[in-house]
Amino acid sequence: MGDTTSENFLRVIVDPDDACVDIVAVHGLNPFNTKFHAERTWTVHSDSDRGALWLRDFLPKQLPNARVMLFGYNSNVAFETSISGVREQASNLLNRLQLKRRDAANRPIVFIAHSLGGIVVKQALVETKLNPTYEVIGRLTYGIAFFGTPHQGSDKAGLGEIVATVTRAVRRDVPNSFMESLKKDTLFSNELIENFKHQLEDRHIISFFETKPYKKHGLKLGLIVDKKSATLGLPGTRETSIGLDSDHDEMCKFASADDDMYEQVAGNIIQLVERAVEDAKHRQRLADLALPIASPGDGNNRIAAQEQLKIAKDQLQAQVNLVQKRTSDMEQECHQLFRLTNSNRDITYEWYKDQVRERVDGTCMWLLEHKHFQSWLTRESGPLLITADPGCGKSVLAKYLIDYGLPQSSTICYFFFKDHDQNTVRQALCALLHQLFNQKLPLIKYALPYYIKHGKGLINSTRSLWEILQMAINNNEAGPVIVVLDALDECAELDFANLMQNIRSQVCSSRSKHSKLKYLLTSRPYNEITSKFRDLLEPFPSMRIPGEEDSETISQEVNRVITYRVNQLRTKDPTKGQMEGLSPEIKRHLKRRLQKITHRTYLWVHLMFDYLDKEDFKRTKKGVDSAITAFPRSINEAYEQILNKSKDDPIVRKTLCIMLAASRPLTLAEMNIAVNLDNKAQSIYDLDLESEEDFITHLRSWCGLFISVHDGNIYFLHQTAREFLLADLMSPSNVRPQLQWYQSITIQHAHAVFAEVCLLYLNLFNSGVSPPDTPDTTGSEVSQSVDWEALLDYAATHWVVHLRKGDMVDNSAMATATLKVCDPNVHEAWFDIYWEPPPYRPKEFTNLMMASFLGLKAVAMLALEGGAETEAKDSFGRTSLHWAAYEGHEAIVEMLLDKGVDINAHDANCGCTPLWLAASKGHESICRLLVYNGAHIDATDNCGQTPLLCAAMEGHCAVVNLLASDGADVEAKDKHGWTALLRASTNGHDNIVKLLTSKGAKLEAREELNGRTSLLCAAGEGHCSIVEIFLRHGADIEDVDKHDNTPLLLAAWSGYAATVEILLKSGANTESKDCLGGSSLLYAVENGHIATVQYLLDYGAKIESKDDRGRTVLQLAQLNHDEAIITLLQREQQKFYPRKRHRRTY
Q1: Which SUPFAM superfamilies does the entry mention (predicted)?
Q2: CA distance to 144, 171, 178, 215, 538, per residue, from 220 (Å)
């Protein structure tokens, strides 16, 4: 029975004296948690106890210079604890490997991994990017041989489900909760799959996959990891895919060296290892040859060394080209990500610009000739704000400036804000970065580290996007950059503050740092916008051009547009029956009449000529006068006239309500369903839908010029059309009696209308009712062209939003219909769409859980009245109380507590209580309610985290204060030794750090993995204010972690110059070295952090410092071709060598 406990180890099983490469083998899941699973994964057992372990018994004869190691770990626990467990074992592997390589730190590495062991290896490579201690291991990992590792989903199953099948194959006693956790776990999310994939971009990969189905232990599971799942799909020669005549379990076991399958496997691994050794030799030779060039010495020797270096470089060029190709592929993926499109059909930021009309010759001169614009053009940096009233052509102006009016020697990037569609800062930043990298691709180097870390999730991090933009435009390669942002007034209200804060920061920073960044901004002259620029008037006194004050000049330019449109006008000649232009006399008369009209704008002219294009007026002066008299003098009157032409007022109002409430422009197919829905339909096929061609004809007859259709999407003609309809409940009404449409719809009513549409539609998808026969489409072109489910995606993801904004959450009349949508028979159709990605959503969701999750109190009450079970649990093991607490629905939490639900129930997924979930999301009032009603304040999840620790990690200061004040343990540690203070310090939550230190939290506490204190964590993440807090509280500035990293070393490695400056001012030792012999200056130079290098030199860092290979900081800079740092170091060296000649030695 001594063989029943798995061990953690990295054991050398082959160790030749002349080893020049390390091979590390990593096993997968351990069926019985046995001690010798690391060996048995690779062993065929015979009659002897020893068996044939090919890594030890066969391979060394073919690779005599390879050291071979086996990594043993508790794989079952690692994968049961999900991503945190895998990360822990990845760090465990790296830590042990680094210790084994103390005397051979420069050897290349080849990993060999079976099944889920490959996920541990991939996570280890991710960690080498995030933790500087292990950077060398990542850099020297040449290749990986994967045996049946599931990298992605197959045609039949998602990745999580494949991993669950692997688990089922090797573990017969696996709990159902574990299986469900694997299927939905974030470890196998698309984002993390992409993240892993990028770690393999510059490696050489062999992917072995099984070709025989698994039939053991009474299980017939087929191909557990098929070819699609077991291969990465890397292009070209980056990956070799090989099918093995074996099942998943036996594919890495070989009875003899003569085994045909072994010869196939060994041949490819030998080739991989030999290439790794050859590559390492070339790189070492290149580095050695660089030493005499970088060092002072005899000129002839330097010339010879340069020639040798050139030869070596030529030999490496093929490999360099391959690496560049791989980097180029990643750059293209990253670049394309910022375009925010998934297909050629998606609307792009370019499309919005293209929809803006071209200027008429002679217009826009009011700006181009303005002295402030001319002054702004000559400046190197600074903002220019152009304001003008609605309909005065600001977007036309912006488009002209982008295409023709701005210096083409500058890098011009733009974004057109559009209300309710393209209105977020995140969208703007992605568009700007896409254009910047399109014109200056080398600058994408600033985005790649973020892309490697976050994958596709990068585009959702506004902070990261701002950081990338700032770094890119500060680089000299960017040159002059002009950012054009049109229609600031259409930026989302919650985003505008963030936009202004960062624009102010950038323009002030560019002024002080002599950057060449300029902003050109357009907006309506709203005080809430212009007031945000007042603090910039002092440094930039001529930054604003108020177009509203140049109305006469703009009117003269409108006259040019009138002249242009009159000349283009074609009407039907009744005598000839065809379209012809007007006579010169009628043209002059029409032009004079239009130009006499006061308060004319570009928008009014556009509406007038669209009206004249369609109006059948007499081609006489009286006919012209009659037509002009019939057309309204104001925009609002024009809109009113357009809508009054419709003979179907109810359907027009319904259409406009839907457009006002919609979170994005609807497609024609979606609107076709929405306007035709009523409560009589029993199935989607009862809807009386037209073909798209017929529907668009009707839509235009209802709404006329008030709407426009582009690429199948429906829009308001102009932002003023939306404003015309919306009632402002906050101000007194000035509605003229004859304007029945003006400000006639409240946004609340619009949402209520669309909410009802969504509910009616979703209730037609009831899986508990026998589906009706689909309509007979034989011979019916209309039925064949109609998409009956076109509205499903939108309704599924937005119905709750409309219900809330329509103030109908507690509406008893709507509660019955809403309860039906929450019924499992109905929500099966839409919940997968709402919960993206669907494989990870909870199953067995009751109507009470759904109401609790969505915060629908009236629906929850109906469910309870109908006998809903309050203690029922879903597939995550969560009750309705868990979901209400997690989502922040206090009224439902209170209602469930009144029903006596178990307040301390732990879910099966993570072991979380309702209090833990509420704390993790920062719901202070719910936390208070739960604590008051007896929730265990220090109840932990499966990782040992208390609610307070989780709240501190997530940055919820009010919750931390509440829990700490009510007696929560501020020193509680999770299973990895993390305290609340450690988590807050790492994540940069300085307000929580202040709070916890005031409550006596210990600064000396260390997390277990790297042995870091709060000061070390804060310094390593560059959190200046937190570092200052700890230093004021007496933290040891020379404290070290397990790898001898000091706070200064960690900050210098990552280039956190401000943190480095604080530590140096506080007396940090510049010469401290980590366990690998690296100093702060060495790491700052190696990683190209020039500001950090300057600080270190200013505070006396020794320029003669050498790394573990004997290279000086200057040599490192020269190897990196970092001219700026080379110049800086050479200036310092000139100071150093004279002092050295006169220095006495002892």
Answers
A1: alpha/beta-Hydrolases, Ankyrin repeat, P-loop containing nucleoside triphosphate hydrolases
A2: 30, 14, 21, 5, 77
